[in-house]
Write a structure and sequence with these properties.
Length: 462
């Protein structure tokens, strides 16, 4: 489920970051007053099918300048309908430099509702995530940051711009850069990169600076349109089962695969990984693979807890201990945790970011949440653990590889793969590793259209 989750999450984050400065008049007249009462509509498409819309509005209120958007996504995944709504509101001071005062984000998928908010003052920023409060340094993010890319595209002759946007996941402003490309038509085309990301977005601007089109990796497309067009969509394709990479032959029970050779038809930068070699267009995966060294700095990093992993949640601490009660070694604890997570979480799609604390209460999730929850519990027991992403065979009924998430733990100084979705310590040869954390997710998001596999050979355990 990971490639669809990545598409949904990346689509939401990129779209919300990109169109915060949507639709205005000439750049030299950019001001909050010029935008008062304006509403703009965008159609959002994934893999060639419109799956949602974005509504952006601006208005001046008694308390300041309000920016609001509503991103709604609908479609089908794993045979079931999904419906997601992201609603964001930022309020800026009424006077220059129009510093952000407060913000609110509400995400909902069916009955799963999440809310985040913050208040920003001279003495600091108070961030509220569900029931937990975090005090951070005051933010200098302002409405001038919102307007900077548009002004640059319309009026500046400089080839590059260093800007920033508000990021809810990272709880503050994040840097981004824009670089001019040869124009197509009368407007401006730019390459956009966000700090800490390998994704490259292509942005098209009208001559007055209005963003008109955003594309990422051939998967995500956002286009400015009318309200009627934005709202008139009905996604029917299963975005998970119809995504991924098709293969020309059935592989049978993938859990028994120990060696797999796949000819790769299509261009993709395949990452190196233990037991995974690309040579002359053929990808060879062997399991079990020789275990990779886990250096001390990497192990230390794989023990850290953050809000996404339920930092400060004492009930998660107790749950980890209870799940491994009676285990006498780290290896036994890993086996116990793998089985526990597979049983504890119902296998249901969750298409938005969720914390380990919420997972403890919700007790449901797909492969992404199984890997995340396993890592959150393992780290509490002093076992270095990290999430990884890649592809896995979806079975003969679908005859394709789809995005998947699993985990790796450091045992005796080496990384060992575990798949808590399927209660497996060690993974089969249909697990094709793309990378850790966000890097792996982004590689999945960038899978090119038309990529396919041809089976050269497949060997299973007896």
């Amino acid at each position: 489920m990971r490639n669809l989750r990545s598409c949904m999450f990346i689509a939401a984050s990129l779209v919300l970051a990109a169109v915060v400065w949507a639709g205005t008049r000439a750049a030299d007249s950019w001001s909050p007053e010029a935008l008062d009462g304006r509403v703009d509509w965008y159609a959002v498409s994934l893999r060639g099918e419109q799956v949602g819309y974005l509504r952006v509005s601006y208005r001046r209120e008694a308390e300041g300048i309000a920016y609001e958007n509503r991103l709604e996504l609908r479609g089908r995944a794993q045979g079931a309908a999904f419906h997601q709504v992201h609603q964001e509101r930022l309020l800026f001071d009424a006077e220059p430099p129009y510093r952000v005062r407060e913000g609110r984000l509400r995400r909902a998928q069916d009955q799963l509702v999440q809310e985040q908010s913050f208040l920003n003052g001279a003495e600091g920023l108070v961030f509220q995530d569900g029931r937990r409060e975090q005090r951070l340094a005051a933010s200098g993010y302002g409405f001038d940051d919102v307007a900077a890319p548009m002004r640059w595209s319309a009026a500046s002759q400089t080839p590059e711009l260093a800007s920033r946007y508000w990021d809810w996941e990272r709880r503050g402003e994040v840097g981004e850069t824009y670089r001019r490309l040869p124009p197509e038509g009368s407007g401006t085309r730019a390459e956009q990169r966000q700090a800490g990301s390998q994704l490259i977005s292509l942005m098209d601007f009208a001559p007055d600076g209005t963003p008109t089109r955003l594309t990422v990796g051939g998967n995500l497309l956002m286009e400015r349109t009318s309200e009627a067009q934005a709202l008139s969509f009905k996604a029917s394709t299963d975005l998970y089962f119809e995504g991924g990479v098709p293969v020309d032959k059935k592989l049978g029970n993938a859990r028994l695969l120990r060696r797999l050779e796949l000819r790769v038809v299509g261009a993709l930068d395949w990452p190196a990984a233990p037991g995974q070699v690309m040579r002359d267009g053929v990808l060879t995966v062997e399991r079990p693979a020789a275990l990779e060294d886990a250096p001390k700095p990497a192990q230390a990093e794989a023990l850290a807890l953050d809000p996404r992993l339920g930092q400060g949640d004492g009930e998660l601490d107790a749950l980890a201990r209870r799940a491994t009660q009676g285990s006498r070694s780290d290896r036994e604890r890993v086996q116990a945790l793998t089985a526990f997570v597979a049983e504890y979480l119902r296998d249901e799609p969750v298409l938005q970011p969720i914390s380990a604390s919420e997972l403890r209460r919700e007790r449901r999730g797909d492969c992404t949440e199984h890997a995340q929850f396993f890592v959150a519990l393992a780290r509490r027991l002093g076992i270095p653990a990290r999430e990884v992403s890649g592809l896995v065979y979806l079975g003969d009924s679908h005859q394709r590889f789809g995005g998947h998430a699993w985990a790796e733990v450091a045992l005796a100084g080496r990384w060992q793969a575990v798949d808590p979705t399927w209660n497996a310590v060690g993974v089969d040869a249909s697990h094709i590793r793309f990378g850790e954390g966000r890097e792996g997710e982004e590689r999945l998001f960038l899978l090119p259209e038309g990529l396919r596999f041809e089976v050269v050979s497949a060997e299973s355990y007896d």
